[in-house]
Amino acid sequence: MRIGNGIDVHAFGPGDHVMLGGVRIPHGAGLVAHSDGDVVLHALADALLGAVAAGDIGQLFPDTDPAWRGADSRALLRRVAREVTRRGYRVANCDVMVLAQAPKLGPHREAMRRNIASDLEIEMGCVSIKATTTEGLGFVGRAEGIAAQAVVLVEPSGQAPA
Ligand code: MG
Question: Which of 10, 34, 36, 114 fits a disulfide with 19 by CB distance 3.0 to 4.6 angstroms?
């Protein structure tokens, strides 16, 4: 088995919603990003790439590439999942920790897990999403942005690498 980790941060800016785990969550601010700013899916994608030593999402989806402007990060995640498959691995489980002072993520957690399970083609029971505030400390605590950290385990799929 192999393990990977990923971290992502986006700053709050003008807007009326954030995208987290592929779920549109109404909020008094948006996230500033070239894509949809989904820190959950970006951290997860980087963890997946890390597990198979395939670089990082900055290399695969450069923010200078207009193709990824405003991109749906679920499409990005599915592309990364295909890369994992192509290299002869499948995802065993993933665990994502979101650091945010707001919005409240509890009501959206199951929808996020469902999206990720679907995109990675794994059981929802293998997808964990957790959230914490930072008790008002740091950039997260000052509500300047949102951070996410992801860990994934992949295992050989039994299919030869393509
Ligand atoms: Mg990002």
Answer: 36
Residue 105 Cα to ligand 1 middle (Å):
18
Q: Ligand 1 center to residue 146 CA distance, Å?
A: 10
List the structure tokens of 68: 């990824």
Report the separation in Å between the CA atom of 45 and the middle of ligand 1, taken as the mean of its atom positions.
10
User: Each residue's pLDDT tens digit in the chain (162 positions)?
Assistant: 999 999 999 999 999 999 999 999 999 999 999 889 999 999 999 999 999 999 999 898 887 888 777 789 999 999 999 999 999 999 999 999 999 999 999 999 999 999 999 999 999 999 999 999 999 999 999 999 999 999 999 999 998 888
pTM of the complete model: 0.95
The token pair at 119 is: 């995109």
